[in-house]
Amino acid sequence: MEIQGLRRRPRRLMLVPCAMQGHINPMIQLGTILHSKGCFSSITVAHTQLNSPSDHTSSHPYFIFQPLLSSDDSSLSSGTDFIDQLSNLNSNCEAPLQELLIQIVKNLEQHEDLPCVIYDPLMYYVKSVADHLKLPSIMFRTSCVTNMLSWYVCPRIKKQGYTPFRDFKSLELVPGLDPLRFKDLPILPSIFENLDAYLQLVTSVQNIGTSSAIIFNSMDCLEQSSLARLQQECQIPIFAIGPMHKLAPEATSISLHEEDRSCITWLDKQATNSVIYVSLGSIASVNEKEIAEMAWGLANSNQPFLWVIRPGLVCGSESKDPLFLPDDFKQTVGERGCIVKWAPQKQVLAHKAVGGFWSHCGWNSTVESISVGVPVICKPFFGDQQINTRYISHVWRVGIELENDFEREDVERAIRRLMVENEGEEMRQRAADLKLKTEFCIQKGSSSYNSLNDLVELIKSV
């Protein structure tokens, strides 16, 4: 079916996020920012039943939350079956989204334009639906610009005799992607079990097709050279409009976990820049030995710490309480440590007591820490986290990488380097300088401010 002939203003927007915490939040932030421009008649969020954001309708009254009737009730994880999980999610949602869009267009009033679809590329089925219905679409990538750029480079270097998939642990620099090493590329070791499926996924996610533009939650001050190179590759407009959480009010955050705000009261009692905040994100997992090494590294560092141990962080454990911590750990650290199941991260990072962040280095966490000037201990797990880590530690130089397996001595040493020693103070100063640059990006007439206005004009015109 082709939908055409109704080209008028104002325009409706359809947002289609991927069903993961780190993908839902940026999409909601983007929708909130676009709503604040007052140029669109309505904004619909088409979401899966999995990790549904519709429980947050009261804090987002300007969105229409529309569930897609997906039968998939599993959870997305970083395990070996991630590709299959994602493929099933795409297959299950394609027909419901197409039916929803057809119904929306049938109900358009005379003065209304066709809806524009903004989608997460992991939901690659959306592109097929939009193309089939001849609706304008825009890709919104929740990772860094360099991550997307790396997938243009990999096929070329493969032709030159390199084997990026076989050499995923190599410290050799990737030709054309300095300072990235092969080990920094967003490759999961588990893909070797089904390399063809992985390559097909990359092709689907990278496919721009007839998309009108690409949006990134990034900034010129962080990725100027990567933005310029990607623009040459893509030949469609690229809009870097970060840091988006600074452009959208705090209420736009959607947490799939209940935030424990008691940790803010605990932070209020701590000295300035004294606390190391530890959170490994919403998907990564560790085993019991690793959690014990983390615990004793934190204890032996003698630094106050706020540690997020969400249910499911420890492999095979959905326990509501961290029973797997060493028996005498809590007695050793006393009031020096605060453990919660989930924290209001942006508020925590902005707190004056927080002087460092031990992170998995997902892109949202990276942008949030940089925009408040907090240096980072990097422990990446998968995907673009390795790229983000390399830039944090070797380009922006506002953090250090915990490179080896979890060992308490290495953990203690990394914390003391960041929180106590001169090296950490120098990182903190560079982080403060970078914070000022990110603040400047969203000021009137600056790069992100201008990109956002240009994006709005493009959406209105496509």
Could you say how many structural domains there are in total?
2
**SS-derived structural category:** alpha/beta
By CATH, the architecture of the largest domain is named 3-Layer(aba) Sandwich
- The level-1 CATH class of the largest domain: Alpha Beta
The stretches of 5 or more residues where confidence is low (pLDDT under 50) are none
Rg computed from alpha carbons, rounded to a whole number of angstroms: 22 Å
What value does the average pLDDT take? 88
Shape: globular
| Count of beta strands | 13
Instruction: Assign a percent range to the helix content.
Output: 40-55%
Individual helix count: 16
* Largest sheet: spatial strand order: 3-2-1-4-5-6-7
Amino- and carboxy-terminal Cα gap: 20 Å
Question: CATH homologous superfamily of the largest domain - what is it?
Answer: Glycogen Phosphorylase B
CATH topology of the largest domain: Rossmann fold
Proportion of strand residues: 5-15%
Order of helices and strands: EHEEHEHEHHEHEHHEHEHEHEHEHEHHH
Q: Main beta sheet: strand number and arrangement?
A: 7 strands, parallel
